[in-house]
Automatic annotation (TrEMBL):
Residue stretches making up the DUF112 domain: 15-436
InterPro entries: DUF112_TM
Pfam families per the UniProt record, alphabetical: TctA
Ranges that cross the membrane: 12-34, 54-76, 104-127, 139-158, 165-183, 195-215, 316-335, 355-379, 391-424, 460-485
Protein name, per record: Putative tricarboxylic transport membrane protein
Keywords: Membrane, Transmembrane, Transmembrane helix
């Protein structure tokens, strides 16, 4: 099946979309504040006329490329494109300041390739197993899974649990707007006809991730001057000793990142910090500690860990219909726009799409390595575009994309309102990921809650029957305990 998938991925059109997706993903990753989730949100309304396989191959290239590109600005300018690249700034920027920018960029590119490629191999063998496992899921299991995603995402990705939960509640509230499909009751539409069909997820994602960022940048453009770049020097490759030094960190980071592609804790943010912390603990035991001086392992591990989540995240999306990050949530919305439902039946109903997409992951990793290893420093020149022109262009594309999907001026006003709301969320540090997860998985949770209660005659005990829901709830409890303990320890360190 994988070989057949490669036959679809190697068609000239799909190869072109692999390259386009990788270029776009790397470009938005390089630009601070612009992530793969925003790029996919902008592309979503523009790809409805494409073949689904080509569209999702491009989305996957954007997803992978975004993580590849994030590290470039983190290393060169100490400006991470997304939260997943923050851990790379600690040692990567020190390497750049010491005149080792090319070696740092090479370390990041090779680490991203190793983590992503191993992740792709794992997901090819794991996704069908996950799909078979998912056939045992009923209303109780899916409701437990959605609840796990809600609580885990809200409690992990935000500094404040209350802010994460508040963002989740807003997303759930947006998901319920419109006419109830079962009872026909009007919900939260306030007799506005344009809201009877609900709020489009495309409008929400574009407003939340793109227009909100534009307004935020515009509000601080005179306060935040662009930082000076670090000039490259030295050889643009790793020596044998440097490669030998980085290899264990790449492998350890990959091992840490792989499980987080399936666990809904906000994507690549958490494993990068865990991988960095693990390498720092190991470094302290060495005779000559390197951390704080530009340690290559401190850059290699987070890069591999962050990119190792990508393949398994796509596997969780395809096999379980479970989005574990904002980008995956938007891709889930794209599946629904094409009339497809990710899950075990997708492997039977659309095998060409699934296996062509899985095969394209390998091609995307190779294309990204070829793009980033020799030309990584050239991406920094994108920042030469004056920021007023750059972000004004993004705002125009936001409006064009939303209007193209509905031809409704009401949606444009809705986009503006959501963009301003997203600016306020950014201003007061409310995370957007729980809102998107709530809006995407809210209908799934509601439908399975209703189905379970209807089948049991209103008995809520049905959601605690079976081994799978109990295991999911136990994992949820463990995740909450770990999160609470970690926060208590971090506060104790601050007090000390």
């Amino acid at each position: 099946m994988l070989m057949e998938g490669f036959s679809h991925a190697f068609t000239p059109l799909n190869l072109l979309f692999v390259v386009i997706g990788c270029l776009l993903g790397t470009a938005v990753g390089v630009l601070p504040g612009l992530g793969s989730s925003m790029a996919v949100a902008l592309l979503l309304p523009m790809t409805f006329s494409l073949d689904p396989t080509a569209a999702f191959i491009m989305f996957a290239g954007v997803y992978f490329g975004g993580l590849f590109g994030d590290s470039t600005m983190a290393i060169l300018m100490n400006t991470p494109g997304q939260a997943s690249a923050i851990a790379s700034t600690f040692e990567g920027h020190k390497m750049a300041r010491a005149g080792r920018a090319p070696q740092a960029l090479a370390t990041a590119a090779i680490g991203a390739f190793i983590g992503g490629m191993i992740s792709c191999v794992v997901v090819v063998f794991l996704a069908p197993t996950l799909a078979d496992f998912a056939t045992a899921f009923g209303p109780a299991e899916y409701f437990a899974l959605a609840l796990f995603a809600f609580v885990a995402t809200s409690s992990v990705v935000a500094d404040s649990v209350l802010k994460g939960l508040a963002s989740l509640v807003v997303g759930l509230g947006l998901a319920t707007i419109g006419i109830d499909s079962i009872t026909g009751a009007e919900r939260l539409s306030y007799h506005v006809p344009e809201l009877f069909d609900g709020i489009s997820l495309v409008t929400v994602t574009v407003g939340l991730l793109a227009l909100g960022e534009v307004i935020h940048i515009a509000s601080r453009i005179r306060r935040d001057p662009a930082p000076a770049t670090i000039r490259k020097s030295g050889r643009p490759f790793l020596s044998r000793a440097e490669f030998k030094e980085a290899l264990p960190a790449w492998l350890r980071g990959t091992g840490i990142g792989l499980p987080f592609g399936v666990i809904p804790v906000g994507g690549a943010d958490v494993p990068t910090f865990i991988a960095y912390g693990a390498e720092r603990s190991i470094d302290r035991r060495r005779k000559n500690p390197q951390f704080g001086k530009g340690a290559i392992r401190g850059l290699a591990a987070p890069e591999a860990a962050g990119n190792a989540t990508t393949g398994t995240a796509m596997g969780a999306l395809l096999a379980l219909g479970l989005p574990v990050s904002a980008t995956a949530a938007i891709m889930l919305a794209a599946f629904r726009q094409y009339g497809l439902q990710p899950g075990p039946l997708l492997f039977e109903r659309a095998p060409e799409l699934v296996w062509g997409l899985l095969a394209s992951f390998f091609l995307a990793m190779i294309v990204l390595l070829l793009l980033n290893l020799p030309f990584a420093t050239l991406w920094a020149k994108l920042l030469l575009i004056p920021r007023p022109y750059l972000y004004a262009g993004i705002a125009v594309f936001c409006g064009l994309g939303v209007y193209a999907t509905s031809s409704s001026t009401f949606d444009l006003f809705m986009l503006l309102g959501i963009g301003f709301f997203a600016f306020l969320m950014r201003r007061f540090d409310f995370p957007p990921a729980p809102l998107l997860i709530g809006m995407v998985l809210g209908p799934l949770a509601e439908t399975n809650l209703r189905d379970g209660l209807l089948s049991s005659g209103g008995d809520y005990g049905i959601f605690l029957t079976g081994a799978i829901p109990i295991i999911i709830y136990l994992l949820l409890l463990i995740a909450i305990v770990i999160s609470v303990v970690g926060r208590i320890r971090s506060r104790q360190r601050v007090d000390v």
